[in-house]
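Ex. 9. Protein: Immunoglobulin G binding protein A.
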Amino acid sequence: MRIRRTRAGNAEAKHETEKKGKKGREDENDQRCKSFTTLPGTPGRRKTMRSFVAYPAATLLVLLAVIETGLCRKALPCPAHCSASLTVFMPDGSTTSVHGSKAVEVIRFKEEISRASWKHLVVIKVANTKIRVPPSLETMIRLVVKKYPDLGQVLIQIIMGNTIPAGSGVDSKVLIMLGYMLSQPNYFAAIYRVLLTLGITFPSFTSPINQVMYGTHVIMLPRPFVVSYTYTINNRVFNLPRDAKKLAIYVSQHMNQFSIVAKFLTQLGASFPVDGTGRIIGFNVFNVMYRFPHAITTTIFIGSKRFALPRDISLLLTAIKHNPTMFFELQMTLEAFGVKFIKTGAGSTQAVYSGKKYDVFTGRAVTITIDNRKYDIPAELEKIFQEPKGFSVGSLLVALQEKGIPVNVDEKTGVILGITIDKVQVPFPVSIDLRFKLDNKVYVIPRDLAKLITVLENKGMPSKILSLLYTRYGVVPVRDSNGIVIAISFNGKQYKVKPEPLTAVVILGQKFMLPRDVRKMIEFVHSKQSNPKIGFSFLKALKTAGYMLINDDDGAMRSIQKGAQIIKLGMEIRIQVIYGTTTYQVPKDLMRLVKDVRSLGPKEVKDVIDQLKAFDVQVTKNGSKLTILFNSVRYEVDLKSGSVKG
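Predicted structure tokens for Immunoglobulin G binding protein A:
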């Protein structure tokens, strides 16, 4: 059994949700996208958002929870004996249960909706209700409702829950990824690709970035963001993108070093246009073209054999067709010269160049699973970073380690160099480094894990920091037979931590010892699905036991943590406050919520403060200063000036 998705709310929901405040913002790595200002139209002109109506906030809060069991997620058609079961807690507190193939349809729809782009929407009618959805979902919705008319209201609730307006026409996914960018600048090369697909455009990267564009909207960043990548070759230091022109000149003067530079540029997302003869005329990085003074060629040596590119590309592809090591060493260089590689099977790929095809053996393939999706590694390593719903570096690194694939990290810089499969070195497709900043000190993962654990133990093993190591840095918790975390590891090397004892969680008088009884606890909650308050009671019990909810990068909360002990609930929790026609997601939108409502006057501010307190969010007001504490992170707003910190 799994519990899937809870969004908190309802007028009666004052016991709700989750927070464990310790000492506020313990780490710079978790500054979420909670304080963006969106300005429709042109820069420099601010337009106040006034999409509110004068209703008490409490009357507009909703709860939607989905509990599921037995879901196999296999291809249709479902067998007649399908035992899948799913229960939806509707906004009025009632429950709707669906079983068998209906339950599978709903969960599949939930997965599809999470992958869809919400940039452009169409209006369709579902169960006599007009609703806006992505065009890619229109056919699926019509087919599901045609087959199961009674699922109409369930789909409507899921659609409404997934659509979280930013108050000024900005997709919530955009704000989530911008927050990820600000809190994790060392992942920018990967995050940038996702932001482009979401429709974000950036000004010049050669100076601090204070704002970005989303369609006609200007999104002001809460602080300047600087893009800076240092690259050293032959004792020459280049800071990109600032020194990109200088690097272009250097490469044109040292063409024999192009294959080395090409790998670095490709990991930043660069492309390389060629002329009519196949020579490279420059590189495009961060949407800016830097031309070489003259088109370049390069020379590759394999043993004593010499290959001049682009002239000898066909000969080179033939030479490496049974040599996986050389293939991965040269793949990015060949791609720069226009060679396309297409996966043809596990451990094989096809190179396409000048209309000809070449089969290449790439070595043994290993299948990893991330978020219920399977990927063949190394062939689909880059594909993971191209998923439309985004990516999780931590999930990828953990999945690789679980399959015994070492992650190669530069001990000096923390840059991920690549992975190793059967002694074959595979370069990482994007530039990511595992530097972790805490108290103005930088720790390189995994080199400094032992030092970092000592520091964290002196701090009382703060859950928030440990959760970042798990979810963003690929650190793996090691558990005993009761599920208690006794150590953390990276690449198989373990570092002991002080274990948390079994913790009692009491729900409606029933006691469970976590993490040992987590499955029993979930089964118990499922058995009480007819009780409309079970979701609230469940969250309240977790908080009372000292667990904090862990925010994932998409704004949802799927795990609880206490010290080094992290427990996956198989549940997605989203807390939403709906004020007027605008929906805010807690805690991600806490600051935007307060900042927006302040423009309507003290009564509206008080309504929001009261409702946040009903969610067990700690709120204190001192004059014009408002302080909010949620999940160990402190947020501050000045109601007069509108300034936001957090």
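Check your answer against this statement. Residues 1-83, 163-168 have pLDDT under 50 and may be disordered.
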